[in-house]
Amino acid sequence: MFNAFNVTDLALVDQKPASAARRSLPDFQLMLNTPDNSGRAGRSRSGCNECRRRKLGITCVWRDPDQIRNKNKKRKTNKEIPPETAPESTDQMLIKTPTHFTAVSSPGSPAHSLIDMLKGHVQFIPDVLSPQKSLFSLPMMQSLNQTENEYLDYYVNCVSKTVSILPEETNFFLSLYIPLAAKNTSILHALLGWGGLFLAGSKENSTPLKYIKSSLNLCSDKLKAPFLTDNDKLELVSVYTILCAAEICAGDVKDWYKYFRKLHEFIVDESKGNLRALVQLLGRSEDAKWLISNFLYHDVLSSTSHQTGTIFTSEQYCEALDIGSSSMRLLDSGSVCDPLQGCVRPLYVLLGEIANTRTMLVSMEEELEQITDKEEYDKKRLDYLTLLDLSYKDLDIRIRNTEPHTRSLLFLKNDEELEHHHTLFETYKLSLQIYLRMMIRKTPPALPEIQLLLLELKPCLDIVLNTSVQAALCFPFLVAGCASVTKEDRKEMSGKLHQISSKFPVKNFERILVVIRKVWKNNNGGWKCVYWFDVAESMGWTLSLA
After folding, report:
1. What is the DSSP track for 183-201?
2. What is the DSSP letter of 96?
3. Across the chain, how many H-helices and E-strands are there?
């Protein structure tokens, strides 16, 4: 089905020091204590630690030249860190229960250590550092009450790890949001709301919603300001991405899209719709590119985008994220690893292209229905069918030939993790092949062409279920569910979705199970195409598969 390979097969990965490259949350906390507190690997004349580990032998572009420190200065800085600030091990920081995850909230837990460390060591942070390095404001952290400490603890220890499918080295939920929250009340309250909603498991608890409302009010006040700095813009984009994710994780099917549209309006107002220009406007390219990647992720997984087309085109996303596009495949050479998408990101771009192609073809169908002249109708119908066939073949070739975002695989610790991520990529490939046929060619799921692909997809789902990448399985499960036509397949798919819904704290799996069952009801024999987004709309949902 696909070629298996191990870590040594990747030219840029050196397996021997891979374990040394691992950075846990305590390491992240220690880095926050140092003057060089960017949260990324250190730098020397021979290249940064990560570059040396990968044996690239080139100068890393993560830092500006004026940030280079020699080894002696680094050693001196490290010695100045009081040993008592080192937090405890994170091995026991999560306790898994049958229905949810519970964070251990104690004075010695990583999040409390993070908060205490920030309270005690803010004086080490120079004023000249960039916004990401200007860490936690002492008054803000001292003002947190017990509930707020619990919510923040839960966000750091549980939420940030549950939604990410990549190791902590690439977890922007910590490296970007936490430092910003230290000096921005709107972002802090958004994170508190997210942590609270995740902890409660629903939107029935009013306390987390209070923080979300406060975050929105602060955003509105900020938008009224006569002038916004680059950092203001970065913070506003960040807070809206947080609010979208918080609502989606709680199973929301309405409010999240309101925040998403507000984010879209802000991006258009600031950049005139030019995503590459937005990277420059936000002032920090790596963080800005991840925020754009985050927007892409939520755009292509929105039910609305599959009805009316994505907000931005795939060409715009590719240009901003350094993804090369050709008639044969996509080549994702972007420097930013997205903890939401991992190595699958180029396939998310192609998912957006499928949605946009279908929207274009539906528009042509509607025009055909209005034509009364037979000669004109035949000509337009030929144009429509020709475009449909060419579009299908082009997308099918690119789905088959596109390869994973290699950089996202560099931080994996062992062959088992690599197998899970590679299998996740194959899972998405097969899902997109099924989806392409149902969306563009309107192939009924009961036909052998779809059923053969489903038989390849199901073992892949079994491999990645209950692994660190299962947060990314909403879309593949939806496709597999819609493609299931026999009683046995439907019973099996229903059982797996019920299993993951009962154990996994993200509520979207529950939502897609509801949608899939309605698709089955409307397509009993599997001989017609029933679209999931139409079903969602019939229930008044704006569903996200994130």
Report:
1. T-HHHHHHHHHHHHHHHHS
2. E
3. 25, 4
CB 135 within 8 A of CB 125: yes
* 281 vs 73, more confident: 281
Q: Encode pLDDT of 282-302 as tens digits.
A: 877 899 999 999 999 999 999
Integer Cα distance of 26 and 162 in angstroms: 18
Residue at 260: amino acid letter? F
Q: Nearest CA to 358 among 307, 315, 397, 399?
A: 307
Structure tokens at 260: 């998403």
Tokens at 98, concatenated: 């049958």
**Confidence band (pLDDT; 50, 70, 90) for 109?**
very low
Percent of the chain exceeding pLDDT 90 equals 67
Q: Domain boundaries in the chain?
A: 442-546
Question: How many CB atoms lie under 10 A from the CB of residue 8?
Answer: 11
Cα–Cα distance measured from residue 529 to residue 442, given in angstroms and rounded to the nearest whole number: 6
Residue indicated by tokens 């390491």: 27
d(CA 134, CA 130): 6
C-alpha 399/C-alpha 439 separation (Å) is 15
Mean pLDDT of the chain: 81
Report whether 258 contacts 213 (CB < 8 A). Answer: no
Indicate if the pLDDT at residue 54 is higher than 50: no
